[in-house]
Amino acid sequence: MSVILVTGSYDHEIRFWEAWSGICSRTIARSGESGQVNRLAISPDKRLLAAVIHKKVYIYEIASASSTPLTCLDAHTMNVTSVSFHSEGKWLVTGSEDGTIRIWDLRSTQVHRTYDNGAPVNDVCVHPNQGELISCDQAGCIKQWDLSENLCSHELTPAGDVPIRSVSLASDGSCLVAGNNKGKCYVWKINEEKSDLPRYQAVTKFSAHKKYITRVLLSPDVRYLATCSADTTVKIWSVSPNFEFKQEKVLQGHQRWVWDCAFSADSAYLVTASSDHTARLWEMASGETVRQYNGHHKAAVCCALHDGAG
């Protein structure tokens, strides 16, 4: 089973790593191109890498040695902050500081649909049912966008106008977690649309960090939540069946802000990217760093990992 591990940095480089040896196997240098790498996503079939670079999304072929992208998705007018693939890889979704969310058809590379969020978008994820998107924004709103109806069908504002930095959906569609600029996490149980209960039922909130939360991420098995922060740590929270969150571990080792993280398919490992120029591979069972990835010359701000079935 091949492991695709990629990091992006303010040094403008995208690096592929051999997960176990820590060796950088490929660098996409992008000489002469300006723009930092904001986010990365690997297609479900492991064929494509989507790299968000300033206002554009570049699509690279993972198996190729070429630093030339296959295509460039160019329609956002400001920094793009998030990118996610559809489960079948037919389309991808982006969110931007320009206040829009765009769905791109990967066959035609055209914008298939644009949602006007009205405030700068910080994060977008695709619901496991592939029929809805969840976004969060600088105005403190979380919105559900219905792909069939072409509209915003639900809106949550858990903390007034405090910006929501990151959202994560459980792989089984059971819950939604959001993290904000004040270090707080909010959790909703997701009920069936057909039930009499509210679609998003607030179940808990807790203070995860004293500083900014940069990323919240539920593990694929939905047993853990990882929260990355400006306080240089990543905290691991256990998730009980009735959505009680308990701090299990504090992953300490990064020297500066931790910006992004990605779980392995079996939820046993976590990759993190930090302003200290490095990425790390952590073993969840021990909470220890098992590998460090050194090579970026500036802050490593995004990472992507795909070690599951292609």
Q: Keyphrases for this structure?
A:
310 residues, mainly beta, 4-stranded antiparallel beta sheet, 28 strands, globular
Helices and strands in order, then pairings?
Blueprint: E1 4-9, E2 14-17, E3 24-28, E4 37-42, E5 48-53, E6 56-61, E7 71-74, E8 80-85, E9 91-96, E10 100-105, E11 110-116, E12 121-126, E13 132-137, E14 142-146, E15 151-156, E16 164-169, E17 175-180, E18 184-190, E19 200-207, E20 213-218, E21 224-229, E22 234-239, E23 245-251, E24 258-263, E25 269-274, E26 279-283, E27 288-293, E28 300-306
- Rg calculated over all Cα atoms: 18 Å
Give the overall shape. globular
| Secondary-structure element series | EEEEEEEEEEEEEEEEEEEEEEEEEEEE
Tally of contiguous helical segments: 0
Low-confidence stretches: none
Distance between the termini: 9 Å
Helix-strand category? mainly beta
Largest sheet: 4 strands, antiparallel
In the sheet with the most strands, the strands line up as 3-2-1-28
Describe this structure in words.
The chain has 310 residues and is mainly β. The protein is 0% helix and 54% strand. A hairpin with a 5-residue loop joins strand 22 and strand 23.
Structure, briefly:
0% of the residues lie in helices and 54% in strands. The protein has 310 residues and is mostly beta strands. Strand 16 (164-169) and strand 17 form a beta hairpin.
